[in-house]
Design goal:
With about 260 residues, the protein is of the alpha+beta class. It has five helices and 13 strands.
């Protein structure tokens, strides 16, 4: 995917305790700086293509059988594809990210489905973490890997208490799209030369690879939960006006969901 009119979201990075000057765009492209710890990441997001027939175009949660319990203090069920449904990955087994505003008591179960057109290539029942927050679902190695060049649809649904009665359950869901592409020679070289996690994140971001950028940064945040720099980067990324996820930028990462799939 070669963007012709990229959306540029500049995310400031104080990647180390050093006070290095922020380089210009020209300086970032100089070979001599290729191994330096980035002080700025330029996230290039291509204008998304027009959706194919039947492809969901929204990342907002919608109750499919009525409304879940209303929680005005929390954002709605939201996937992390971004406001414009950014779709690219270079991983045959990507990780998907969703914000869930409910506890495991309020939404005790759910389901995840990945589809190639009309064919379901992966399905799993879900058990959610105890607390509200951003959760992840990774396509396991036992599933069919994504094929380069294909666009897939995925669905994440939760079974939750109805807003009308705590004795009744309803369902809310979000949808997203993911497309696997081959890494360009330039990206391969930059990843090969990357000496730190932030350099890898910068490389994915530069080449518009959204899922891998998001996953790498989320994992870094989980590994260093008390690192204010990583927290700042995460908030800046999600809060960018072109990404449109400022309402969940400060929400915690609750962890991976527990999956139970017939395919595993």
């Amino acid at each position: 995917m070669n963007p012709t009119k990229p959306i540029i979201a500049a995310i400031l990075i104080a990647a180390s305790l050093t006070s290095l000057p922020i380089p210009s765009l020209a300086q970032l492209d100089e070979p001599n700086n290729s191994n330096a710890e980035p002080t700025e990441i330029l996230f290039l997001l291509a204008n998304p293509p027009l959706p194919t027939v039947g492809t969901p175009t929204t990342n907002r949660g919608t109750g499919t059988r009525g409304d879940c319990l209303y929680k005005p203090e929390n954002p709605p069920l939201t996937n992390l594809d971004g406001e414009k449904n950014f779709e690219l990955t270079v991983s045959a087994y990507p990780t998907f990210w969703v914000y869930v505003p409910y506890t495991s008591k309020e939404a005790p179960s759910g389901e995840f489905s990945l589809q190639d057109g009309e064919e379901e290539v992966y399905y799993a029942n879900l058990s959610l973490p105890a607390t509200p927050g951003i959760v992840s679902i990774s396509l396991p190695a036992t599933a069919k890997p994504l094929e380069v060049g294909k666009t897939y649809r995925w669905y994440f649904a939760i079974n939750c208490h109805s807003s009308n009665s705590l004795d009744n359950f309803t369902q809310a869901s979000v949808t997203g799209i993911v497309k696997i592409v081959s890494p360009s020679p330039e990206l391969k070289e930059e990843l090969k030369n990357a000496q730190t996690p932030l350099q890898k994140i910068a490389a994915y971001a530069k080449h518009s690879i959204w899922y891998d950028t998001l996953t790498q940064l989320a994992q870094l945040r989980q590994n260093e939960p008390k690192n204010p720099t990583i927290e700042k980067l995460w908030v800046q990324l999600l809060s960018d006006e072109n990404i449109g996820l400022s309402n969940i930028a400060s929400q915690p990462i609750s962890g991976a969901v527990i999956t139970n799939s017939p395919q595993e």
